[in-house]
Specification:
Length: 430
C-alpha cells in the first residue's frame, strides 16, 4: 500500500530523472493518498529534498563506496537523510519508515543497505556534514552556474539570496478590498484561530503566520469570492501599472491569471484582453476569473504574432510579465534549480527582447508598459531595459514610487527575502 514516502519517491524520481515539473507531479500523484497528513508529509518531503538536493547528494557520495544503479533507492536515501537532518521526526522512526518503503517498492534486497547507510549517517553526521559543507555548492544547495550569476549581479547579497531560496516562503493572500476590508478580514481570520498580519508595501495583502489549507479560508470560494493566494511582490504589478478610468489594457502573458484578476479588482477599464499561448494555461486563467466572478476577454494566441489576435486599436496600458528564469521564486519552486540550465538564460533574454519589440508598437502614445520578471538576474532585468531604451527613442522610464526592493539603473529589483524575487520596470511612450 502506498504511503507518503513511497509517493514522494515516485514524484522525486520523475522530477530528478525525467526533468518533470514538481507542481505537475504533485497534482497527479497526491490524489493517491487519501489521508491529509500523508499528503502533507509527501509534499514536505518533495519540496525539502529538492530544496536541499545538492547537499543531500553530496552526503550520499560520502556514505557510498560506489554509485547506486537503482534510481528509486538513490531517491529513498535522500528522503531518509532529509528527515534526519531537517525534520523533527525521531531518528529511529524516520529510519524505520524509510526502510519500510523498500518493501513497498518490492525491493527487499535493498532493505539492509538503506538501513545501514542511514544509521551510518546518524552515527557520523557531524563529521560528514563538515566535509560536505566545505563545498559552497553543496552547503548552499545551488548549482555553480546559478551561484556565479548571483555573485556577478549581487556581489554583496548573493549568499543571502541563496540562503533565502532554501527557506519556506510565507503564505500571502490578496484581498479584493472592494468586497472586504483588510482589518475586517484579519479579524475574521483571528476568530478562526488563523494568525495574520498586513503585508507591507501593498494595499491588498495579508500574510499568514502559518500556511493553511485554502479550503479553510473564508472568501476563497463561493458566489462572492474575494481572496486569492498571491505573494506580496506580485501584488505590486496592478499598482505600478496605474490604469486610468476607461483604459484599454493588454495582459500579454496572463496565465494563470493572478495579476489579470487583480487588475479587474482594482480598475474600471474599457477593455482588458488577457492572452496566453497554451490552451491548458488559458484554462487556468478562466478558472481564476470564474472563481472570483470576474470577466475579461481572453485569447489563446502567440503574443509575438499580433496579426492573429490584434484588432489594430492601440492599448493604453500593457502588462508584460515575460517568461523568465524564475530565479526569484526558487523558494516556492525548488525544482527550478535542477530543471533550469545555463543555456536557458540567453534564450530567455532573446525571447523577452522579442516580446518587447513586438508589443511596443501596440502601445498608444502616452501609454505605459510594465515589464515584469520573477528573476534576479541582471541580464533579464535592468540590462534588458537598458538595451530597449537605447533602441527606442520614443520610450522613457517611469520611476516606480515604492520603498520595496532595490533601485537599479533602470527599474526596481525585489530580492527573495520578505517577498519573492521580482523585477519591475515601467516604460512610457511619448
Amino acid at each position: 500500500m502506498q504511503n507518503s514516502r513511497s509517493i514522494a519517491t515516485k514524484i522525486l524520481s520523475q522530477v530528478i530523472w525525467q526533468k518533470r515539473s514538481l507542481t505537475d507531479c504533485l497534482t497527479k500523484q497526491l490524489v493517491n493518498l487519501t489521508d491529509s497528513r500523508e499528503r502533507a508529509l509527501a509534499q514536505e518531503l518533495c519540496y525539502g529534498v529538492l530544496r536541499w538536493l545538492l547537499r543531500l547528494q553530496a552526503i550520499t557520495h560520502q556514505l557510498l563506496h560506489k554509485k547506486l544503479k537503482d534510481n528509486d533507492i538513490q531517491i529513498l536515501l535522500l528522503i531518509g537523510l532529509y528527515q534526519l537532518i531537517y525534520l523533527r521526526t525521531p531518528p529511529y522512526a524516520a529510519i524505520a519508515a524509510t526502510v519500510e518503503v523498500t518493501r513497498i517498492l518490492k525491493k527487499p534486497k535493498t532493505t539492509g543497505l538503506v538501513n545501514a547507510i542511514l544509521r551510518n549517517f546518524q552515527r557520523n553526521s557531524e563529521e560528514i556534514l563538515a566535509i560536505v559543507d566545505n563545498n559552497i555548492e553543496a552547503k548552499l544547495s545551488h548549482p555553480g552556474w546559478i551561484l556565479e550569476h548571483l555573485q556577478a549581479d549581487w556581489p554583496e547579497q548573493w549568499e543571502a539570496i541563496a540562503t533565502a531560496n532554501n527557506v519556506h516562503p510565507p503564505m500571502t493572500l490578496r484581498l479584493n478590498t472592494k468586497l472586504m476590508a483588510r482589518d475586517k478580514y484579519i479579524a475574521t481570520l483571528k476568530e478562526l484561530d488563523i494568525a495574520a498580519n498586513i503585508t507591507p508595501y501593498t494595499n491588498y495583502g495579508i500574510t499568514l503566520t502559518e500556511p493553511v489549507d485554502i479550503r479553510k479560508l473564508p472568501g476563497f470560494a463561493g458566489k462572492d469570492a474575494y481572496v486569492s493566494v498571491q505573494d506580496g511582490a506580485a501584488q505590486l504589478a496592478a499598482e505600478f501599472l496605474d490604469v486610468p478610468e476607461g483604459a484599454r489594457v493588454l495582459d500579454a502573458c496572463a496565465a494563470p491569471g493572478g495579476k489579470t484578476a487583480h487588475l479587474l479588482e482594482c480598475y474600471n477599464m474599457k477593455a482588458l484582453l488577457a492572452i496566453d499561448n497554451q490552451a491548458s494555461r488559458v484554462s487556468l486563467l478562466h478558472d481564476t476569473l470564474q472563481r472570483l466572478n470576474l470577466t475579461a476577454q481572453t485569447k489563446c494566441a502567440d503574443v509575438c504574432q499580433p496579426d492573429d489576435w490584434w484588432n489594430g486599436k492601440q492599448f493604453d496600458r500593457i502588462l508584460l510579465d515575460v517568461p523568465c528564469s524564475a530565479s526569484g521564486v526558487i523558494r516556492r519552486h525548488p525544482d527550478i534549480k535542477h530543471l533550469r540550465q545555463p543555456e536557458d538564460i540567453d534564450n530567455l533574454v532573446a525571447q523577452q527582447a522579442l516580446l518587447l519589440d513586438t508589443l511596443w508598437p501596440l502601445l498608444a502614445p502616452g501609454g505605459k508598459l510594465l515589464y515584469v520578471t520573477c528573476s534576479v538576474f541582471a541580464a533579464e532585468n535592468y540590462l534588458q531595459i537598458q538595451d530597449f531604451l537605447a533602441k527606442y527613442s520614443d520610450a522613457n522610464e517611469v520611476e516606480l514610487t515604492t520603498e520595496c526592493g532595490h533601485q537599479q539603473m533602470y527599474g526596481r529589483q525585489i530580492l527573495p527575502d520578505e517577498f519573492d524575487g521580482f523585477y519591475y520596470a515601467c516604460l512610457s511612450k511619448h
